């Protein structure tokens, strides 16, 4: 498990990264659509290309910001540093390199190699269907009556 002083340092790094991402995202959003209508077709095409780059950067930064927020939530919940795939500890060296990592290297590799990869401790989480009780009104509903529950 990751030590308390390491967690505090990683938390501060996440806070700094979050602030950086928010500033960059804000700047990218200002750049989007901030062009006037003056100029010729070449200017408009260049503006369009610039908007596409700003949009792509904003999307990437927004995704990373969500990952940072998730990591901070995990820190507060006491699950930071545990792999979401196998529930084993993520090495501190990996967390130093990628502070918002949620998977150990082994599980990350599996996720990238196997398109239908599912975390081992969550596999089958939703495969068991318990008894379903329907009211008399629901049983009269032809859409619900035709469901193949429990077959």
Explain briefly what this protein structure is:
This protein is mostly helical and 151 residues long.
Structure overview:
- It is a single chain.
- With 151 residues, the chain is mostly helical.
- The protein contains six helices and no strands.
- The radius of gyration is 24 Å and the shape is extended.
- The two termini are 45 Å apart.
Helix content class? 55-70%
Mean pLDDT: 76
Order of helices and strands: HHHHHH
Count all strands and give the number.
0
Which strand-content bin applies to the residues?
under 5%
Instruction: Give me the CATH superfamily.
Output: DksA, coiled-coil domain
Radius of gyration: 24 Å
Topology:
Blueprint: H1 4-31, H2 41-77, H3 92-97, H4 105-113, H5 136-140, H6 142-145
Give short descriptive properties of this protein.
151 residues; mainly alpha; Four Helix Bundle (Hemerythrin (Met), subunit A); 6 helices; 59% helix; extended
């Amino acid at each position: 498990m990751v030590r308390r002083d390491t967690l505090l340092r990683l938390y501060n790094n996440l806070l700094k990264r979050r602030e950086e991402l928010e500033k960059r995202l804000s700047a990218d959003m200002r750049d989007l659509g901030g062009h006037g209508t003056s100029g010729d077709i070449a200017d408009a095409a260049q503006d369009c290309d610039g908007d596409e780059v700003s949009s792509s950067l904003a999307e990437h930064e927004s995704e990373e910001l969500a990952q940072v927020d998730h990591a901070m939530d995990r820190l507060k919940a006491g699950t930071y540093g545990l792999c979401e795939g196998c529930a084993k500890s993520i090495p501190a060296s990996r967390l130093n390199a990628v502070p918002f990592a949620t998977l150990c290297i082994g599980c990350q590799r599996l996720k990238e190699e196997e398109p239908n990869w599912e975390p081992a401790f969550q596999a089958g989480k939703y495969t068991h269907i318990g008894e379903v009780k329907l009211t008399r009104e629901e049983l009269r509903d032809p859409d619900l009556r035709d469901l193949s529950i429990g077959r």
